[in-house]
Design a protein that fits this description.
Number of strands: 22
Distance between the termini: 75 Å
CATH class of the largest domain: Alpha Beta
Largest sheet: 9 strands, mixed
Number of helices: 14
Number of domains: 2
Shape: elongated
Radius of gyration: 29 Å
CATH architecture of the largest domain: 4-Layer Sandwich
CATH superfamily of the largest domain: Carbon-nitrogen hydrolase
Length: about 525
């Protein structure tokens, strides 16, 4: 063997990816003392022992000829317990991983360190790919991590953290950590302050990073009662007609519920104020007296529709009905689930007509509803014309938005329709709208209707060419039944031609709910 060959063998790397062991601590300590010399150095052995023993599968390293030269520490958490506003110590249990939850849904990145002498070998990328493989194999929703921005110290005087992140994203500024994370498929979800207060180089700021596991399947496979990947939606284009009593109206309601149930629909959507014909039974000709009279039937109708939901095994979104609470009138949509539970969404924005002629008040809460066919939201008519509401719902992973509406003219209808289509595209969700048609000559101020029921989708190759899943004939009583593929939404959000959720400029703007939870 020549002298040259001997030198090559002695300097050649022999890299191996494996899980960390307790006896690796001296190597880990040396790495951390080198990299974090200015921020406290290495963890005590007690921390390291807790990490390796609590979640051994999540602690990985790369060794070179038996010496650890790079490593990554992770923990599984139930992310909803912490939310986006957390500190490093809170979500890692002061680095002891006391927050580890084997039944959690997110793999949280606690630490990644590469020996400075090995940084040209892309060992960090190997560790990140191993983490992604672990996330997929454990069927976790995503990888989350708080990322330092150590070069921010050089730009803090002229740039806000948001501006700095954008310049790193546009490659005008290089940051050794953030640039690396972005190149490995992570998205910046938001900026966190006081994440690591002792990190002077980052000025205490950190990026909240997320990588989505598009192969994630919620829950363990179940032979019965499992979450659906497809939802069959039934919408009722309701003909306004005179009814002599509540029983006649409920007979018509049951007819549609029965029909949609026969087609195995998961949900039946009724229009806003579908019960308006009962206003004709008011002893007064005044429109305000009529709407308040209509509210007296709501409890009876709600009880009956909840019973129908259970009997016909179909969730009913009961359009909307007027409700009087503490001498105030509200417009409320009830979600009657087929398991017998009832939830509600108040209309937040009464129209000028509703405020002036009916003295109607707006509700103060907004929520996403969990159903056995997906996460849904409900915005009543005028509410869909306020894009902030659907944006807030989309941040809570809403998949289908239901919009019961009631419009008298075509221009009023087109406002609802065009805004509903926009909500589907900008929030990457399905939107179903259902309205009423026909005339109510005996009811003051609500005597005419114009409506066309429809279901809209995002606009991309996997969806209909015009982003309209289906629609009815205008002004004709009928039903609309469509099948929605919910898995397409997940793929769109991560691999679509455009990615409205991921590409939002969170450094420039945000939408926040400041009302009741």
């Amino acid at each position: 063997m020549s002298q040259d060959q001997t030198v090559i063998e002695e300097t050649e790397h022999h890299l191996a990816l494996r899980n960390l062991r307790l006896d690796d601590y001296n190597d880990i300590k040396a790495l951390m003392d080198t990299v974090y010399a200015n921020v406290g150095g290495a963890w005590p052995y007690t921390n390291y022992k807790a990490q390796v023993t609590t979640f051994p599968e999540g602690q990985i390293c790369i060794e070179d000829k038996g010496k650890v030269v790079a490593f990554a520490i992770s923990v599984i958490v139930d992310y909803d317990q912490f939310g986006d506003k957390h500190s490093y110590d809170e979500i890692t249990g002061d680095a002891y991983l006391t927050t580890h939850d084997p039944n959690g849904d997110v793999l949280y990145g606690v630490e990644v360190i590469v020996c400075p002498e090995y940084r040209g070998l892309r060992l960090g990328r190997r560790l990140y790919e191993a983490r992604k493989e672990l996330c997929r194999n454990l069927n976790l929703k995503s990888i989350m991590a708080g990322g330092r921005i150590p070069n921010y110290k050089n730009h803090a005087k002229e740039l806000s953290p948001y501006e700095y992140i954008e310049q790193v994203k546009s490659k005008d500024i290089y940051d050794p950590i953030l640039t690396f994370q972005l190149s490995n498929g992570f998205e910046v979800k938001q900026v966190m302050s006081a994440y690591l207060p002792e990190d002077e180089a980052s000025k205490g700021y950190a990026t909240l990073l997320q990588w989505h596991n598009i192969y994630y399947e919620p829950g363990n496979p179940s032979l019965i009662a499992s979450r659906k990947s497809n939802a069959r939606i039934g919408c009722i284009q309701w003909q306004m007609r005179y009814f002599n009593n509540v029983e006649e109206l409920l007979q018509q309601v049951e007819y549609f519920v029965d029909a949609l149930s026969d087609y195995s629909c998961d949900v039946a959507l009724f229009p806003e104020f579908f019960n308006a014909p009962l206003m004709g039974l008011s002893p007064s000709d005044s429109s305000i007296d009529a709407i308040w009279h209509l509210a007296t039937y709501t409890d009876e109708l709600l009880t009956a529709m909840s019973h129908l939901a259970v009997s016909y095994n179909i969730t009913i979104i009961a359009g909307s009905m007027p409700v009087v609470e503490e001498e105030e009138l509200y417009n409320v949509s009830y979600i009657c689930k087929r398991d017998g539970t009832i939830e509600s969404q108040y209309k937040l924005h009464p129209t000028p007509h509703e405020k002036k002629d009916w003295i109607m008040k707006g509700g103060n809460s907004l929520k996403v509803f969990d159903t056995d066919f997906g996460k849904i939201g409900v915005l009543i008519c005028y509410d869909v014309e306020f894009p902030e509401l659907a944006r807030i719902l989309s941040e809570q992973e809403m998949q289908i938005l239901f919009v019961p509406f009631w419009t008298d003219t075509k221009n009023g209808y087109l406002r609802v329709r065009r805004c509903a289509q926009a909500r589907a595209i900008e929030n990457e969700c399905y939107v179903a709208i259902a309205g009423s048609v026909g005339n109510l000559p005996k009811v003051d101020n609500v005597d005419i209707q114009y409506g066309q029921t429809a279901v809209f989708s995002p606009s991309d190759f996997a969806f209909p060419h015009d982003a309209i899943v289906s629609e009815t004939t205008p002004n004709t009583e009928m039903t609309l039944i469509v099948d929605l593929d919910l898995d397409k939404l997940t793929k769109l959000q991560n691999e679509g031609s455009v990615r409205n959720y991921l590409d939002r400029r969170r450094d420039l703007y945000r939408v926040e709910w400041i009302g009741d939870d």
